[in-house]
């Protein structure tokens, strides 16, 4: 039975809260409700929604009902004019907001990360138990699943004739290695992004692995054990983790926040005039025996372009890689594990891409001699912001047919947050730092 979705956005503090409404959504009422404190984060959210409504090309028509004040949580629990909740704001309190929504029988789409400290992991387990009890679901904004190169890599690593099986790897030479580099100073929807001060407070936002590392941890399971449930207690073995800070001058901090000085809340993280931001982490773990390494980095600004993503997946027959230069799009490459099998690999890859033509007309293979590149049709290239529409479409489908949600999604949500928060905890305990 079709139900019209009526959105309630709860305490928006991150620009992702607005990106899910960047375009009109089929099955969603244009009137939305925002419950939040009346602060700069809320005003920034309203400005982004207004910009979507006012743009000349494909404007939206959102009608926002703002219900702001110090009692916004009590009003949210009492009034509930909607039937679905969007949460994307301060990270550490996010799990409590999710629990508040679920306890009121509401499905939730929440931006990552749901938790940033391992001490909060029991809250996540409790959230899922309560969601089961109330027959509602919670959904993560896993936009990286919709990046075309990630999607194709998943297809190719599932082909035993092309990829073989996953190598086991070692901590020094893992079978799966992913590296994500993000930049503090950037533009979103064509406008300079202004980050709130609390975004730099690790007690609120968490460290990089607990935040952007969520995508990498999710992709590791999505690739190595596709469509299968992962038991974090028995099938994930954490091996090592480290961390190092990103140093920001007061001038750089001001350029991305609009503030003239470090606020008093961040003073404990300021040393000799520089803000020590918890922006670099790495971790190594075994996932069903396959060695995985994740690396997350933040840098101040990229002269050439935006965020980058790299991945190397090693199989017994082929290595499939995603490489992305700053300012360029990610590209997909395939190389035979045994160089003498290069021609055989090219033939198999072309056969595989021929099958994929049903979904991606125009896909082809370019032979570079020692490796092959999968040439992706321009029509299939989308931006990171575009992926939020795909995530929202999936949330709407789950809202209409919650029984169709794959059974592996729930245990794997626990598993990815186990990986990220345990990695941060281990790095702090070991007191290790790294360079580069």
Instruction: Identify the CATH architecture of the largest domain.
Output: 2-Layer Sandwich
* Count of individual helical segments: 14
Distance, first to last CA: 54 Å
Helicity range: 25-40%
Let me know the average pLDDT.
94
The CATH topology of the largest domain corresponds to Dihydrodipicolinate Reductase, domain 2
Q: Give a short account of the largest sheet.
A: 10 strands, mixed
- Taken together, the total number of domains comes to 2
Structural class: alpha/beta
Tally of DSSP β-strands: 18
Low-confidence blocks of residues = 432-436
User: Regarding CATH, which class of the largest domain?
Assistant: Alpha Beta
Give the overall shape, derived from the CA principal axes: globular
Beta-strand percent range = 15-25%
Query: What name goes with the CATH superfamily of the largest domain?
Result: Dihydrodipicolinate Reductase, domain 2
Question: Please, could you describe this protein's structure?
Answer:
This protein is α/β, with parallel strands linked by helices and 436 residues long. The chain is built from 14 helices and 18 strands. Strands 7, 10, 11, 12, 13, 14, 15, 16, 17 and 18 form a ten-stranded mixed β-sheet that branches. The model is unreliable at 432-436 (pLDDT under 50).
What attributes characterize this protein structure?
Rossmann fold; single chain; 436 residues; Dihydrodipicolinate Reductase, domain 2; disordered C terminus; globular; 2 domains; six-stranded parallel beta sheet; 14 helices; 18 strands; 34% helix; ten-stranded mixed beta sheet; alpha/beta
